[in-house]
């Protein structure tokens, strides 16, 4: 069961609240398999490139810089996170499509195989609704990818 320090969960929640009414997004880095840092990534979806309450698109330049950072530091990608402002912490069909490159190519491996997708829901102020998911390529004959909830331990 993946473990996430309470401070990192608090950072994701703070980011989600600060970016309201738009979805927030970012990544969680790990060192030796342990989650160590939350990095906010600008949501550049929307007509003005300044975010949207309906979807997220991580800034590609920032994503590239984070890839280089991970390569240089020996860190790894633990999770991709984003918020839902009006729905539960479950991947939407849009979220499923975005987990693949090109988006929606469910017969391929996900863009970041093995990575957790953490969702923070702001639909209700309390209690905190934060859940983690794995997204994998679809099974033969299926229309959608395999999406499985992954219990997380907040420590």
Q: Which outline best applies? A: globular
> Strand order across the biggest sheet?
3-2-4-5-6-7
How many distinct helices?
Answer: 3
Tell me the β content: 25-35%
What is the CATH architecture descriptor?
A: 3-Layer(aba) Sandwich
Structural overview:
With 155 residues, the chain is α/β, with parallel strands linked by helices. The chain has a single domain (3-154), classed as Cytidine Deaminase, domain 2 (3-Layer(aba) Sandwich). It is built from three helices and eight strands, in the order E-H-E-E-H-E-H-E-E-E-E. It has helices spanning 6-18, 60-73, 93-98, and strands spanning 3-4, 25-31, 34-41, 76-84, 116-121, 129-136, 146-150, 153-154. The strands form two sheets. The protein has a six-stranded mixed sheet with strand order 3-2-4-5-6-7. The protein has a two-stranded parallel ribbon with strand order 1-8. The N and C termini lie close together (12 Å).
List the main descriptive attributes of the protein structure presented here.
single chain; 155 residues; alpha/beta; Cytidine Deaminase, domain 2; 6-stranded mixed sheet; two-stranded parallel ribbon; 21% helix; globular
Describe the protein's topology.
Elements: E1 3-4, H1 6-18, E2 25-31, E3 34-41, H2 60-73, E4 76-84, H3 93-98, E5 116-121, E6 129-136, E7 146-150, E8 153-154
Parallel strand pairs: 1-8, 4-5
Antiparallel strand pairs: 2-3, 2-4, 5-6, 6-7
């Amino acid at each position: 069961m993946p473990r996430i320090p309470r401070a990192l969960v608090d950072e994701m929640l703070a980011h989600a609240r600060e970016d309201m009414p738009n979805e927030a997004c970012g990544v969680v880095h790990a060192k030796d398999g342990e989650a160590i840092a939350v990095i906010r990534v600008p949501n550049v979806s929307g007509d003005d490139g300044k975010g949207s309450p309906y979807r997220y698109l991580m800034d590609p330049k920032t994503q590239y810089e984070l890839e280089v950072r991970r390569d240089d530091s020996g860190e790894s990608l633990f999770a991709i996170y984003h918020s839902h402002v009006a729905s539960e912490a479950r991947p939407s069909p849009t979220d499923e499509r975005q987990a693949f490159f090109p988006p929606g190519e469910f017969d391929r491996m996900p863009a970041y195989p093995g990575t957790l997708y953490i969702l923070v829901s702001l639909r209700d102020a309390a209690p905190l609704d934060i859940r983690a998911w794995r997204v994998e390529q679809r099974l033969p004959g299926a229309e959608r990818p395999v999406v499985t909830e992954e219990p997380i331990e907040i420590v």
